[in-house]
Amino acid sequence: MRRCRGRLGVAVLNGLLYVLGGFDSSVRLKSAEVFDPVANSWNEIANMGYSRSAPACTAMDGKLYVCGGYNGEHCLSSCESYDPVTNSWEPMPSMMRARSAAAAICFGGKLYITGGCDVVQFFNSVEVCLAYISKSIVL
Question: Is there a contact between 52 and 31 (Cβ–Cβ < 8 Å)?
Fold first, then answer.
């Protein structure tokens, strides 16, 4: 990576490895990078809309999805999607509950977020953040 970062989000899309946000021991990051294993090179991509460490990340249908995380002051409920064709982030509907260190998965055309925590408690809940994101699956 070009920038040191821990507590980052990671997702694979179209054979490329994306690292999203994180913490550089000083500040939470909104920057993101992509690794091309064929070229063995890292490149920066557009910044996310929010600084976030420990976000939930996944990919589906040509886009990346990042939800929640921690901005250094509080846990986030915000979600964003990244389109590598346009190198741009778009806001998405927020989660019902702010959470950090959760897991994300796209399954059956839905984006699920499970577990995680806020500054007070750990969660055993699951929520659907976007009910229909897949163009290839009809619900």
Answer: no
Tokens of 22: 């994180």
CB 79 within 8 A of CB 42: no
User: Following DSSP, what letter does each residue of 15-46 receive, concatenated?
Assistant: TEEEEE--B-SSSB---EEEEETTTTEEEEEP
Q: What are the sequence ranges of the domains in the chain?
A: 9-130
Q: How far apart are CA 33 and CA 50, in angstroms?
A: 15
Give the single-character DSSP code of 135: S
Quick one: CATH architecture of 9-130? 6 Propeller (2.120)
Question: Which token pair is 54?
Answer: 């420990």
Three-class DSSP category at 77: coil
The per-residue pLDDT string of the chain (139 residues; one tens digit each, 9 = 90 and over) reads 999 999 999 999 999 999 999 999 999 999 999 999 999 999 999 999 999 999 999 999 899 999 999 999 999 999 999 999 999 999 999 999 999 999 999 988 889 999 999 988 999 999 887 655 544 433 3
Check if the beta carbon of residue 109 is closer than 8 Å to that of residue 38: no
